[in-house]
Amino acid sequence: MIRTLLVDDEPIVRKGLLHILPWDRHGMSVVADLDGGEKALDLLGREPIDLLVTDLTMPGMSGFELIQEAQARFPEVSIAILTCHQEFQYVQEALRIGALDYIVKTEMDDDKLDRIFGRIASRIEEKRVRRQSPAAKSATADKEGALFVAMQSDCSVGELYAVPWVSERMPNPVSDAEQAWFAELPALDKRDDGADGPVPTNKWFGRWAVVILHHLTMKDRLRELLPVYVRRHIFYLVDRKEGSVVWHDSLRDIMLFEEKAQPPDWEEEWDSFRWIADDRAWQELQERIRMQRPEPSALCGAIYRTVRCWRGIRRFSEIERYVTQARTLRMWTDWQLWLARLRRDLKRALEGPEANREHSLRILQSIQGVQRRLAEGITQEEAAASIHFSRGYYSDCFKRTIGVTFNDFMRELRIDRARMWLTCTDVPVHEISRRCGFADEPYFRKLFREETGLAAKEYRAMPEAAEEYGLRCIGNADIRLL
């Protein structure tokens, strides 16, 4: 059992957490619940504890101080934190100084809690494996593997084979895309770099990510899970800011995640655009994405299509720079930083002297609906009705917010979407015309030539045009947006 100590200054909260959280299901036994950091440190000095679960904001000794003291005096103790939505700004700092994970006290969804507690239990088990004797490690020698994932398009397997300990393992490609290679490892021993030989950090940083995967007991599922892991999960694991080449993860966690995946409701939060102006909604959006781990192709494609629509916002002069930058982003942490800057600049652009923030957000919501139903040829009246505005007020508000009329904006949007279809697909021109909301194909052809200087077929023949519509995320081949 994982001997657990719960610390929170509110007795009612402690009582609720003792009964609600899935301690037993994940092999945890709460040996004590205390109301302060000083009492917790005293008990840690007297009792063997595997896991400390502590609130961050407490009178007297804060959760941060408790974490730092516990790490200094009892390094073998693992730590998880309790938090509320409004405390998300503290979570990153707590994780940075050594907490394993965090539990949101206001979110008691069973599936979400199972995933969190499963992660915590897995990481505690990893620490135990590292402390085992060589003989004990030998008994679990088949439980680790090294996954080598290319971060750049010009990476080659020859770079891996140039490292002796890697070539000895003879890594195999995970999939036909050859974005990743996998090799089994003996049990982890005392490695400073997370592998069983030196990783050429200077050469590999920014080019390769090495993931040490634990808990490979289900070998029959490796062939099925590894491509899924590379395509989906590594995008959320790797953080370029850490300056590292080696990361650790648990295949058991991935199995649990894939078996109990949450409904992907992150897009609902994204489409609301509340996250632009509301800090709490911004944190909620990031949390939903972190917990649900949508397919990178779906996530990044949806974000990019939306932001590309905003090129028509004349008051947002920096938008072209953001559209260009998006094509260089590789990991979710890259996208988060990019979105944080985008959010700041867009909020400033929408807060002019005549602007109404709520109405500006509703205009963006209407644009989102229109671009998703482009083939239907949505009219201005229908766009206005979708956000409960009159046609006249919508027209006024649209021009104030965006800087151009609805009709001019829609013409640019339809032509841009046609360019995307032409460069990314083999769909016939007449069908592209229909999908972009043009009822009359000859008119579409005429307008396309006026806007681009080329006939549709001539534009399609330009290979360099396709580069504008491709994204590339770690673990994925080029992501096409249609």
Describe the structure.
Keywords: DNA-binding, Phosphoprotein, Transcription, Transcription regulation. Pfam families: HTH_18, Response_reg. The chain is of the alpha/beta class. It folds into 3 domains: 130 residues, Response regulator (Rossmann fold); 125 residues, no CATH class; 215 residues, Homeodomain-like (Arc Repressor Mutant, subunit A, Orthogonal Bundle). It is 52% helix and 12% strand. The strands form 3 sheets. A 5-stranded parallel sheet has the order 2-1-3-4-5, sandwiched between helices. It is globular, with a radius of gyration of 26 Å. The chain starts with a strand and ends with a strand.
Report a brief summary of the structure.
The chain is of the alpha/beta class and 482 residues long.
Question: What topology does this entry show?
Answer:
Elements: E1 2-7, H1 11-20, E2 28-34, H2 37-46, E3 51-55, H3 63-73, E4 78-83, H4 88-96, E5 101-104, H5 110-131, H6 134-139, E6 144-150, H7 157-161, H8 164-169, E7 172-173, E8 180-185, H9 201-204, E9 208-214, H10 222-237, E10 246-250, H11 251-259, H12 266-272, H13 274-277, H14 279-292, H15 296-309, H16 319-326, H17 332-349, H18 357-372, H19 380-386, H20 391-402, H21 406-424, H22 429-435, H23 441-452, H24 456-460, E11 470-471, E12 479-480
Parallel strand pairs: 1-2, 1-3, 3-4, 4-5, 9-10
Antiparallel strand pairs: 6-8, 6-9, 7-8, 11-12
Q: What is the class of the largest domain in the CATH system? A: Mainly Alpha
Q: How far apart, in Å, are the first and last alpha carbons?
A: 50 Å
Sheet with most strands: strand arrangement: 2-1-3-4-5
Could you describe the largest sheet, including whether it forms a barrel?
5 strands, parallel
CATH superfamily of the largest domain: Homeodomain-like
Q: What is the total number of structural domains? A: 3
Protein name: Response regulator
InterPro entries: CheY-like_superfamily, Homeodomain-like_sf, HTH_AraC, HTH_AraC-typ_CS, Sig_transdc_resp-reg_receiver
Domain Response regulatory: 3-120
Modified residues (4-aspartylphosphate): 55
